[in-house]
Write a structure and sequence with these properties.
- The chain is α+β, with helices and mostly antiparallel strands.
- The chain has helices spanning 9-13, 18-25, 42-69, 74-82, 101-112, 116-135, 138-149, 264-298, 312-340, 346-371, 378-388; strands at 155-158, 174-178, 181-192, 199-205, 214-220, 226-228, 242-253, 257-258, 302-303, 306-307.
Length: 390
């Protein structure tokens, strides 16, 4: 469990600064009065507090610089991993924290309040770790996961191609077995961590057309025949590198196949179920930060002799945003619980949660931005950066 990194819940809670502890204890100090601990057990509240403290101290103060200068904060990610955030739902025998998906959602939501982009990369890394933990052999788990969970090494997920996005089972990257080596040829597109990550989980075709012809491979960065395209110029998500991964007869030992031949599409889709929860969760974090900033802003800025929160239109707008955020959190947390329970309808609910939470998140960030757009201060910088990351 993550709590082992601190010894006890009391020790975990003690890490919170006195001012932030007061904020959590007195919910009325939150600009919207939303209680973000509702429905959480004692351990989950402790996880949330640790992640919030880390986000406030180590992520939020630097997020704008990371975005503007396109800095990948590997050192901060490694600090996050020292708290157990590098392998949140990986078994603890290989360095993971052994938590569930709702626990992870709580942690990622808190981290995303500091930077959506950086947290989103962290969730992708966690997804890759889980795939190895869930489908790998004992040898693969022991070989790859200790350094991935500590984030001494970073991981990327490689499914999308220039010609296959939503129709993922039509991917064209091929893997041919020659002796003891597979040779991979093709191109993966829009890869988070592309060119920077140390380990790539690559879906490639080992058989005929369709999903059953796809297998998954663990490919080290230094493999012969792998190269990386130029970093993409993006509106947001600039704290994580994004580039094509190019495979030209890339040599991969056959023991680096994850799972059995033909299991790649199943592995990829199960990874994406959890990935959809994670992206919904990061949207919640960014939205919550913008909402609280906007609500605080309109309570202090004056126009026409009174503060903006005295205008009924803005009060209704804040109420609508708070309601939608709360509904989105419930949907995401429900999907996370269904994932942990292996509910037969979990795939549908993960997709619904991701769709709803990201749409709600964008709308909240956009509406928040309009409320204080004329204020040239840190709040404006934060809101613009968050909305770019949608």
């Amino acid at each position: 469990m993550l709590i082992r990194h601190f010894g006890s819940i009391a020790a975990c809670t003690a890490r919170i600064t006195s001012s932030h502890s007061l904020l959590l204890q007195n919910k009325r100090l939150m600009a919207t009065n939303i209680d973000y601990t509702v429905g959480l057990n004692e351990e989950q509240v402790a996880f949330q507090q640790v992640a919030t403290d880390f986000s406030r101290k180590e992520i939020l103060p630097h997020a704008h610089k990371w975005d503007q200068q396109k800095i990948f904060p590997s050192d901060v990610l490694q600090e996050a991993a020292s708290l157990g955030f590098g392998g949140v739902y990986v078994k603890d025998d290989v360095g993971g924290s052994g938590l569930g998906r709702k626990d992870a959602a709580i942690i990622f939501e808190a981290l995303a309040r500091g930077c959506v982009s950086t947290t989103a990369y962290l969730t992708i890394h966690n997804m890759c770790c889980w795939m190895i933990d869930e489908f790998g052999t004992e040898e693969q788990r022991k070989q790859w996961l200790p350094e991935l969970c500590s984030m001494e090494k970073f991981a990327s997920y490689c499914l999308t191609e220039p010609g296959s996005g939503s129709d993922a089972s039509s991917l064209q990257t091929k893997a041919e077995l020659r002796g003891d080596m597979y040779y991979l040829t093709g191109e993966k597109a829009f890869i988070s961590g592309g060119g920077r990550s140390d380990v790539y989980l690559i879906m490639a075709r080992t058989g005929g057309s369709g999903p059953k012809g796809i297998s998954c491979f663990i490919v080290p960065k230094e493999s012969e025949g792998i190269s990386y395209g130029s970093q993409l110029d993006k509106l947001g998500w600039n704290s994580q590198p994004t580039a094509p991964v190019i495979l030209e007869n890339c040599k991969v030992p056959k023991e680096n196949m994850l799972g059995m031949v033909g299991m790649g599409f199943k592995i990829a889709m199960q990874g994406l179920d959890g990935g959809r929860i994670n992206i919904g969760t990061t949207a919640l974090g960014g939205a919550a930060e913008c909402l609280e900033l906007a609500a605080d802003h309109i309570s202090s800025r004056k126009q026409f002799g009174r503060t903006l929160d005295q205008f009924q239109y803005l009060r209704f707008k804040i109420a609508d945003m708070a309601t939608e955020l709360t509904a989105a959190r419930l949907l995401v947390f429900q999907a996370a619980e269904m994932y942990d329970e292996k509910h037969p309808a979990r795939t549908m609910h993960c997709a619904m949660a991701k769709r709803f939470a990201t749409d709600v998140g964008f709308n909240i960030c956009n509406n928040s931005l309009q409320m204080y757009y004329i204020s040239i201060d840190f709040v404006l910088v934060v809101s613009e950066q968050i909305i770019q990351n949608y």
